[in-house]
Amino acid sequence: MIIDIHGHYTTAPAPLGQWRDAQVAALTDPLRAPDPAGPAIGDDEIRESIETNQLRLMDERGIDVTVFSPRASFMAHHIGDFATSAAWARICNDLCHRVSELYPDRFVPGAMLPQSPGVDPATVVPEIERAVLELGAVTVNLNPDPSGGHWTAPPLTDRSWYPVWEKLVELDVPAMVHVSTSCNPAFHTTGAHYLNADTTAFMQLLSGDLFADFPDLRLVIPHGGGAVPYHWGRFRGLAQALGRPEPEESLLRNVFFDTCVYHQPGIDLLLEVMPVENVLFASEMVGAVRGIDPRTGHHFDDTRRYVEKAGLTPDDLAAVEERNARRVYPRLDARLTAQGR
């Protein structure tokens, strides 16, 4: 089985975006507020949006299952207040749950959180519980920068995050550390802000003792870990200078990386530097990089091609493409096992 742990509903039917536009407009004109029950989206609209996009590409590329969460750039936690984000998260999470109900063998839900700048992170705990226990989410996307590129939030090691970590450990659910849209013109959303955040989150973890307090917490850093694997010597050297243990010893029991790296040399280096057990197959398809590479004739985000040309042994390849995901996402494994897979 090939499991893609990083998929977003980037092709959601138009009424979702229209509802969000109305919600944002209502921040200055309450008369434009949308129906609090959410947009009217029929099952056939969902099927059309999925079958012509993600499901078609999954079939073409031989991907069996995708962990499917709301569109990351649409989370936009910097817009409005906590109530704004809470309503938006509920609607988006419900929609991903509906996809998983329509295609139970192909999509497994993930969830976004109702974060808001300057708001206590503990306020997201009820949505974590609802998404996991009621909607069947096997992971959550956690934004380390709800301000949208201005980095006003405390580091992930700060005690204000502890109620979130406690709930994730209690539910045995990992978090993917994933930012959203940048509203800072200095940082392009997908070309800079995403990769900055991946790198920043890892450095925060390296500088602190989060996993001493939460030895069972699991965090996935997407997009190949940002700069981390490609500057591993820098991070080892910084750990030494800061009097920290080697990152392999202090972090890699709890921190994992995905394969959303869109060229062969990048995947090769990721798999050479990082232990195989810390790398999980992913493509983020259909995502930020949707085009065809003119040098290869294949889509940039067809990451299975790169992983399977990286020279892994059959056992290591199976670990990256399936076993690691089932280990890091135990609720995913339980769902697949219940299906006889």
From TrEMBL:
InterPro entries (UniProt xref): ACMSD, Amidohydro-rel, Metal_Hydrolase
Domain called Amidohydrolase-related: residue spans: 3-330
Region forming the signal peptide: none
Keywords linked to the UniProt accession: Lyase
Keyword Lyase in record: yes
Protein name: Amidohydrolase family protein
